[in-house]
Specification:
- By secondary structure, the chain is α/β, with parallel strands linked by helices.
- The protein is 42% helix and 11% strand.
- The chain has 13 helices and eight strands.
- A five-stranded parallel sheet has the order 1-2-3-4-5, with helices on one face.
- Helix 11 links the parallel strand 6 and strand 7.
- Helix 4 packs parallel to helix 6, helix 8 packs parallel to helix 9 and helix 12 packs parallel to helix 13.
């Protein structure tokens, strides 16, 4: 039974949290204009890096929770990353790990940033994602099966995404992290919500295949609202870094017609995903340019068996000042060298989908690594 003393303590803690968030996030700014975004990018060095999950982690939880966080492995992989020519990472945080112990999470995130900065690597931060399975929990994580990214988790879970009364912890998550690092040059971008309309995530084994049509519609509406609210939470901290929401659908349908305009309108710079050949990148950029002249980043790409390869796409990105984040680095527990389920055909056996290096840090394709070094060394 809750005593009067416990109730008072709870109220004091809630007030302290509110005052902290208010004190760190009070100088709200508007979405950057095209001209402001261009002025920002003109002052930046070119960034190319990877979507990073350490080889020891099967998902975001295993990356960040105290019991499994391994800064020594991260340090070794950052050293390899820098030797390859990369100077950036895109990394997914974990709302569950943050909620369980905000101070501990923030300490580990600071270790991550310090280690990245030691190698001249800037960090792009992702808070939320609809990718993965909807069964995230703390503690021991799934043992990898023989499939692509078997342990990846949706965040927030759909029980939270679909219930706005539970969004207080999401607001605290965003405002605490952005509030502390809003003026920190080690953070290069806030990529708030990864693929917000992608409810089923069909390229992940399991996904959300058992959801009813009504539930999917509800979650998509909530995703639209979370875009609006999370953008406001982040900008309320007046970050010097851009906020973005990555586009990932370009062939008509609801995501392009409803999600894309909102994501563009809430983004300081424009980001997009595609795992298709160079011609697809050119087509997407042409579409984006009909709406805005803001700088562009490609925050997910590179799937070899789909024709999304470093040569020639990385060169195209570099020549057009498009910040570039291919998927994967050292082959590990995510097993993202394996194909997406619908690409798992006999003729594709032996061809890596994502990732660049084997677990012993030798390259999957030495010629590919030499190409990366040559392009990024220009």
């Amino acid at each position: 039974m809750m005593t009067r003393k416990n109730t008072l303590i709870t109220k004091i803690i809630a007030l302290a949290v509110s005052l902290f968030l208010f004190s760190t996030c009070v100088f709200a700014r508007e979405v950057w204009t095209d001209e402001q975004a261009k002025q920002w990018i003109a002052k930046q060095k070119y960034r190319a890096g990877v979507n990073y999950i350490p080889s020891y982690a099967v998902n975001q939880i295993e990356l960040w929770q105290k019991e499994t966080f391994d800064i020594k492995t991260i340090d070794r992989e950052f050293a390899l990353m820098r030797a390859t020519g990369f100077n950036a990472v895109r990394v997914f945080l974990s709302d569950l790990v943050f909620e369980s112990n905000p101070d501990g999470f923030m300490e580990r995130f600071e270790e991550f940033l310090k280690t990245a900065d030691k190698y001249g690597i800037g960090t792009m931060v992702v808070f939320f994602t609809n990718g993965g399975t909807d069964d995230a929990k703390l503690g021991k994580q799934v043992v990898p099966s023989q499939s692509h990214n078997p342990g990846w988790k949706k965040q927030p879970s759909y029980s939270i995404l679909g219930d706005k009364s539970k969004w207080g912890i999401l607001e605290k998550f965003v405002k605490t992290v952005v509030g502390k690092y809003a003026k920190d040059p080690r953070v290069i971008c806030w990529d708030i919500f990864n693929e917000p309309g992608n409810i089923k995530s069909l390229h992940i084994v399991g996904g959300a295949k058992n959801l009813s049509d009504d539930r999917i519609k509800h979650l998509k509406r909530c995703s639209l609202d979370l875009i609006r609210e999370s953008a406001e939470w982040a900008r309320s901290c007046d970050p010097q870094q851009p906020v973005t929401f990555g586009l990932y659908k370009y062939k008509g349908g609801e995501e392009e017609k409803i999600f894309n305009p909102l994501q563009i309108s809430q983004s300081d710079v424009i980001s997009y995903h595609t795992y298709a050949p160079l011609i697809d990148h050119m087509r997407i950029i042409k579409k984006i340019r009909k709406h805005t002249s803001k700088p562009i980043m490609c925050t997910e790409w590179m799937g070899r068996i789909r024709g999304s390869t470093f040569n020639p796409i990385l060169s195209f990105h570099k020549n057009n000042n498009i910040w570039s984040f291919p998927f994967g680095f050292v082959a590990g527990k995510t097993q993202t060298w394996r194909p997406w389920p619908n690409d798992d055909t006999p003729e594709m056996q032996g061809i890596w989908f994502h990732d660049i290096y084997k677990s012993d840090h030798t390259p999957y394709c030495p010629e590919e690594v030499e190409y990366i070094k040559r392009i990024l060394g220009k």
